[in-house]
């Protein structure tokens, strides 16, 4: 078997070990719970639209996906760490199969960065389209147009957290240091980029000769667009610009990185 | 060199599990690894398999450091723990997914082992008894034809037929050039196939005894009465009298008993062949 075939074989084993029934059951519970959370939080935060209608806020939708990213990272990493901490005596196991570190790492990337997000996010994405198609017009769900950006951020959360937790498990301690540094740099760049693109909204609107009308309108969210220019000037619509990463997520990431480094230093088993 | 350890040490936090372990195995054969409970048998096997990392010292298996878990070593070494994970699959499916990782895996031998061990190849392992599951795992381990096979308490859960088949498979393995290390408390179940006895006590290796040499070196006698005080040997109460072990060249009236030899070398501090040192002082 060549290295590529071994990577695919490892991924196949892990997917096979997941079990179809377990997958369907867990995905069903996962999607059901998130949907319930979404509607509960959505209703709590919903703003009244036109008479008799309800607007679901974008950030509830965003939060739903972010939560999915964190949850998927937890599910994914737990499946490994459980073996690491409690079931290291596995003769036939994913992590003790004859494969090089590189192949092991490659398999984890393919499985954790592609298969698991697909497994976790696909139902949510499909649900978004489905909900949009079936809900009455009086319920204004967030626009599908913001989905790609949210999914991207969610995937990033999943990948970031799962990689941080997995690094000590799947690669040798020496390489963990390099990985942790790269992650910190990558994360910092991403946060810096987000901060740079942060649009405070109304504060940025230049004063116009029609200031009264401008304060009434400028900065208001309309599901997928943010009005950033004074109505007195020509209208400029920009894609929805999300708020900065919540401080809690940054704090959690820093904590996870520290934890990963600690685990790497104390690592005794694969 | 197949296995070579120099000054090997391992600890879990402040608790030492192994220290100053020196070991050289340079020939294929079957080695029985014996130690009291909690003296580091399983830890030593895990160190050899690269599942635990040494705290100090050097360890090489087939020329590689196990902690690096290089592909070449992993393909030539198989570790069967005492309670391994078993996927909820049939033995056939297990081989379908896992066998490709072992270049020397012998599918024909696997099928034969399953038949000999009376394991249904198409019954998922979560629906069979512990003994059947154990036999399926042993079938796979033996079929890997790994150059180094590490087995932790392999006979637990095996019935009489299973143990007999297991011993025959071990002999076939050594004939094919395998080096097999068996950690067990049940020496009597494997004593007929062992070539060497590895004694582990007080967190270090106390002896590596060639059993062919030991058979000529030690005298085993079954006596109706307990040997007198001051006798330079070891005596153990057995049905029918006392089984004694001496290292003074006296004639034997019974065959080598491995459990008694183990007790004589550990509790009895009997000298070992090739040395004038007592193993456990």
From TrEMBL, chain A:
Positions of transmembrane segments: 20-44, 64-85, 105-130, 150-171, 178-198, 245-265
Keywords from the named record: Membrane, Transmembrane, Transmembrane helix
Transmembrane helix is among the record's keywords: yes
Name of protein: ABC transporter permease
UniProtKB/TrEMBL annotation, chain B:
Residue ranges of domain ABC transporter in the record: 3-227
Superkingdom to which the source organism belongs: Bacteria
Keywords recorded for this protein, A-Z: ATP-binding, Nucleotide-binding
Cited SUPFAM superfamilies: P-loop containing nucleoside triphosphate hydrolases
Pfam families referenced in this protein's UniProt entry, alphabetically: ABC_tran (PF00005)
Record GO terms (molecular function): ATP binding
CDD domains the UniProt entry points to: ABC_DR_subfamily_A (cd03230)
Designated name of the protein: ABC-2 type transport system ATP-binding protein
Organism this protein belongs to: Neolewinella antarctica
């Amino acid at each position: 078997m060549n290295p590529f075939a071994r990577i695919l074989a490892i991924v196949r084993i892990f997917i096979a070990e997941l079990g179809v029934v377990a997958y369907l059951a867990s995905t069903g519970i996962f999607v059901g719970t998130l949907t319930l959370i979404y509607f509960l939080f959505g209703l709590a935060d919903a703003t009244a639209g036109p008479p008799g209608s309800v607007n679901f806020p974008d950030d509830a939708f965003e939060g739903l996906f972010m939560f999915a990213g964190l949850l998927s990272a937890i599910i994914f990493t737990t499946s490994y760490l459980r073996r690491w901490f409690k079931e290291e005596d596995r003769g036939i196991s994913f992590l003790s199969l004859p494969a090089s570190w590189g192949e092991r790492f490659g398999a984890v990337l393919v499985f954790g960065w592609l298969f698991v997000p697909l497994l976790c996010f696909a139902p949510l994405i499909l649900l978004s389209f489905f909900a949009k198609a079936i809900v009455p017009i009086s319920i204004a769900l967030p626009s599908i147009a913001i989905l790609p950006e949210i999914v991207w951020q969610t995937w990033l959360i999943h990948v970031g957290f799962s990689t941080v937790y997995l690094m000590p498990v799947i690669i040798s301690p020496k390489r963990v240091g390099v990985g942790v540094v790269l992650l910190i740099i990558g994360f910092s760049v991403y946060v810096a980029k987000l901060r740079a693109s942060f649009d405070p909204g109304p504060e940025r609107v230049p004063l116009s000769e029609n200031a009264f009308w401008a304060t009434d309108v400028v900065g208001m969210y309309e599901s997928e667009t943010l009005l950033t220019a004074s109505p007195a000037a020509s209208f400029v619509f920009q894609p929805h610009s999300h708020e900065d990463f919540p401080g809690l997520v940054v704090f959690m990431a820093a904590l996870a990185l520290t934890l990963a480094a600690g685990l790497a230093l104390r690592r005794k088993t694969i | 060199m197949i296995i070579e350890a120099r000054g090997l040490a391992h600890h879990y936090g402040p608790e030492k599990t192994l220290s100053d372990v020196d070991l050289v195995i340079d020939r294929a054969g079957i080695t029985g690894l014996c130690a009291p409970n909690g003296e580091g048998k399983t830890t030593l096997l895990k160190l050899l398999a690269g599942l635990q990392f040494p705290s100090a010292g050097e360890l090489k298996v087939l020329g590689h450091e196990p902690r690096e878990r290089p592909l070449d070593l992993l393909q030539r070494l198989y570790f069967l723990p005492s309670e391994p994970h078993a996927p909820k699959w049939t033995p056939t499916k297990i081989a379908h997914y896992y066998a490709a990782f072992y270049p020397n895996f012998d599918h024909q031998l696997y099928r034969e082992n399953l038949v000999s061990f009376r394991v249904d190849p198409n019954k998922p392992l979560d629906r069979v008894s512990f003994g059947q599951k154990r036999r399926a795992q042993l079938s796979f381990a033996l079929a890997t034809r790994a150059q180094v096979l590490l087995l932790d308490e392999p006979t637990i859960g095996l019935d009489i037929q299973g143990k007999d088949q297991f011993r025959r498979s071990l002999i076939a393995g050594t004939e094919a050039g395998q080096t097999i290390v068996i950690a067990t408390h049940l020496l009597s179940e494997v004593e007929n196939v062992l070539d060497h006895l590895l004694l582990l006590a007080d967190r270090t290796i106390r002896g590596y005894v060639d059993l062919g040499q030991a058979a000529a070196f030690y005298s085993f006698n079954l006596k109706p009465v307990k040997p007198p005080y001051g006798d330079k040997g070891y005596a153990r109460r057995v049905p029918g009298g006392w089984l004694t072990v001496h290292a003074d060249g006296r004639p034997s009236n019974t065959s080598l008993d491995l459990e008694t030899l183990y007790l004589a070398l550990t509790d009895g501090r009997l000298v070992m062949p090739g040395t004038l040192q007592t193993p456990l002082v």
